[in-house]
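Extended Data, panel c. Modelled sequence:
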Amino acid sequence: MTRLIALLLLVAAGTATLSACNTVSGAGQDISKGGQAISNTAEQAK
């Protein structure tokens, strides 16, 4: 029973870690797109 609980905790931790990586990656892409939009607007305002 203890091994089953340990296995389930490891699976849950692995799933949480992978989800966090996707979240950080998505946030980085959003920030990058925001920066590109600001740069494009500045270029058009010249």
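The helical segments are 2-45. This feature is highlighted in the accompanying rendering.
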